[in-house]
Amino acid sequence: MNSPAGRSGQGTGPRDRTGQAEAFDSIGERYDAAFPHKDGQIEATDWLVASLPAGARVLDLGCGTGVPTARRLAQAGLDVVGVDLSARMVALARAQVPGARFHQGDLADVRPHGPLDLGRFEAVAAFFSLLMLPRAEIPGVLSSVRELLVPQGLFALSMVEADADDLPVAFLGSTIRVSGHPRGELRAVVERAGFEVVEESSRSYAPSAPDPADGPGAPPEVQLFLRCRRLG
What we know:
Blueprint: H1 20-27, H2 30-34, H3 39-51, E1 57-61, H4 69-75, E2 79-84, H5 87-96, E3 101-104, E4 121-127, H6 138-148, E5 149-160, E6 164-171, E7 174-180, H7 183-192, E8 195-205, E9 221-230
Parallel strand pairs: 1-2, 1-4, 2-3, 4-5
Antiparallel strand pairs: 5-9, 6-7, 8-9
């Protein structure tokens, strides 16, 4: 982990990432097997592809294995950079999407003049990555995303709809901590960070167990997808 517990967050006090990267290191390839149907994520990624010129820089924030987002963006001729806290996920992404560049790091460190300054982007995608942060950190990371974007830059965001803050949950044989907002509250948080929400959609999704030994899959969740544009 690049940001162990005890390091200071951006205006949020000490961060605690205990066990988060290790959980995804352990999950590895099983993540894609548990989420084989990513229609909402693919549709949001295709919106970015259709809206951007060839060669535009796109940041995949919380890139996971690189599939499908980074791969789809790279195949469309975009200049793709990915970041993930998990070293295993970064290694998988590098192997699966050789046309993109990937960095191991904390999402909260990716900001202009911050510990991981990767430059500016025409678009940012953050699919189910901000839910790994405590609620108190989400507005600061959204503000950093706005700073990373060029004027009128695009932002595709997905979260699981939930009224939860840093809640421990069992996930594919590991324990992770997740946060969420009801949809109206999430939209308000995003708008306060300086974004216009140009489209909102939701899907009900039940992750499947990639191995029968893991038991039944998780119960259905409501996934929220926001297509946004930077104001100013």
